[in-house]
Amino acid sequence: MPDTADAEPGQPSPTVRASLFDPIRFGPYQLPNRVVMSPMTRNRATHETPDALTALYYGQRASAGLVITESTAISPRGLGWPEAPGIYEARQEQGWRLVTDAVHGAGGRIYLQLWHCGRSSHPLTQPGGAAPVGPSALAPAGSVRTRDGRLPLVVPREASAHDIRAILDEYRMAARRAIDAGFDGVEVHAGNGFLLDQFMKDSSNVRTDAYGGSPQNRCRLLCEVIEAVAEVWGVARMGVRLSPNSPSNFALTDSDPTGLFDTALDGLERIGVCFVDVVEGSSNAMPPTAELDFARHRARFSGVYIGNNGYTLERAQQALQAGHVDMVAFGRPYIANPDLVRRFRKGAPLNAVIQDSVYAKGALGYTDYPCLTGPE
What we know:
The structure is a single chain. This protein is an alpha/beta fold. The chain has 11 helices and 14 strands. The strands form 4 sheets. Strands 3-4-5-10-11-12-13-14 form an 8-stranded parallel barrel. A two-stranded antiparallel ribbon has the order 1-2. Helix 9 links the parallel strand 13 and strand 14 (327-330). The chain is globular.
């Protein structure tokens, strides 16, 4: 297991009038601030493998209290598109070791986001040109990037009992590789229209077995994945991303989003994971799929609650002081501002994102954004 000599395991108590710059107990770690670098796909993993440029990118942003990596495929079948990173081969593990060494060398903490894309992939990306797997053989909305350009999604193959057992094994193996790559913990991606979200939402899951029907059944795979990963990491070093009312890019909806979100949180509370990372609302131009009272839902979970999606410094401080969140994740501001914590502390202006380079190749718009100069 990762070194834990700096702190004893434990969960934080609910935040009362905290500041973004206050330290926080986070599982076995004491983090220096409550700023989280949100997971963000950047499509720069050549042959699905991180490299020295990736290490530089994450190392530049290590002043965040917590860095969470971009979505990282647990297996070739979990990969969503080319040049997204994986953690299923030795070369990928070695590439990620460059990243964790860079972040730790800069004094930071970094968690790996474990990802299975499910039906939000394409045969051109899947091993042997097979159809991607999903909870049900329903035609999904949207398109996905492939080596031949962006193409419409295809009807997935419904996951069999054998497939589900294999997926659980893939999560375990990826979790073990994450330890060997030097990560401090992991986040299981269960949102944004990917596999676990697909199982949870009734617009994509019409199964009649133990993984379909009631909200409890549709959350079953999520809980089994969490328990499988916890066999490797323990619950104190892991958390989950949820996006209960985000349309994502794949238009997933649920007939009872409030009840489903409560069911998912109750399952995570029962298992005892350290944190939830919640995408609150829509992260694209589409409206949220439902209006949710996130403060009410947050009260169901006793671990660390990370609020995510569109937060400004002012809004983050207000949410922390109200006790609605314990930490706040920032996405796009971290693309253009590797020194985001320092800029927030000094009230300095933020660099603007170079839109054309968000998913481009190379250092341009990736590792060349300027940092503040002068005394701290």
